[in-house]
Amino acid sequence: MSQLTERIVEIRIGPSGGEGRSWKNPAYIEFEVERTTGRNPNKATVKMYNLSLASRQWIEQPNQTMQILAGEGIPGQIFFGDIHKKGVKTKPQNENTITEIKASDGQRKWRDSIFSKSYPPNITRSVILKDVIAAIGLSTGYIATIPEKRYSNGYAGVGWARDILTDILGNDAEWSIQAGSLQIVTKGDQIPGNAVVIKPSTGMIGSPERTDKGVNVKTIFTREIVPAGPVTIEGNLFQGDLRVTKVVHKGNSQGLVWETAVKGMPLS
After folding, report:
1. Going by C-beta distance under 8 Å and a sequence separation of 6 or more, which residues neighbour residue 75?
2. Helices and strands (DSSP H and E) totals, the chain
3. What is the pLDDT of residues 31-56, one digit of tens each?
């Protein structure tokens, strides 16, 4: 089997917690997934070619979620999120019909969750944080242990849960939604795990670029590269460790595009 035929893309769409449907090779599928360490939801765009009417009608139903899996041989998840309210469009292009789907990671709970609660004097941050996380209603991924803080005058939180979470964490930590799960990382820190090594022999594309905002590097598609994760670069223009701040995966089910672009901050 050639390398190209081993590159698998699978799209799963269905209601949250319900039974879904899937599409994969040999169907022609394109994807682009952008993930960051920021609080705004990660986003994905998928294009599927020449779907049946029944498939399009299924995808167009309200409140659908989309999961993207990709990989060589056995695909793994690179995105899970909510399809936008008007995020499905079908249009003709040459002899094809292309259905474009846009989705965001945890969009509905990020957008709709509210918080309203008051606390007595000397309440601790950990207690409030637990309540805010519960109000957002997402499953939890990596949650860092952050320094305790005591509110001598108490605390009153009213408004969007996402804003209360930002306020409670302050400058001590940053939060994001990754594949439908809440992630909290100490500012400037990394999530646990082995560093992904990017070098010419592992698929580096071109050379790393160092800017005043960090380091940019591109490699063959590598789903293990994630926001706040560790990466080691071994290139001609830069060698060292990075903390990933943004990753963009692009590919299609024929393997003609199959790459990961990384932005990160050097750790030394």
Report:
1. 8, 9, 10, 24, 69
2. 4, 20
3. 999 999 999 999 999 999 999 999 99
Per-residue burial over 61-75, b if 16 or more Cβ lie within 10 Å, else e, is eeebbbbbbbbbeeb
Distance linking the first and last C-alpha atoms of the chain: 42
List, for residues 235-253, the tens digit of each pLDDT value. Answer: 877 899 999 999 999 999 9
Residue 40's nearest CA partner among 85, 107, 86, 88 is: 107
Number of domains in the chain: 3
Please calculate the CA angle 47-48-53 and round it to the nearest 5 degrees. Answer: 130
Structure tokens that stand for 96 in this block: 């094809």
Beta carbons of 63 and 20 less than 8 angstroms apart: no
**Is 191 within a domain?**
no
User: 64: domain range?
Assistant: 4-106
Please determine, for residue 135, whether its predicted confidence score (pLDDT) is greater than 80.
Answer: yes
Both 91 and 12 in a single domain? yes
> Which residues are within 8 A (CB) of 221 and not within 5 positions of it... i.e. 6 or more apart?
7, 70, 71, 249, 250, 251, 258, 259, 260
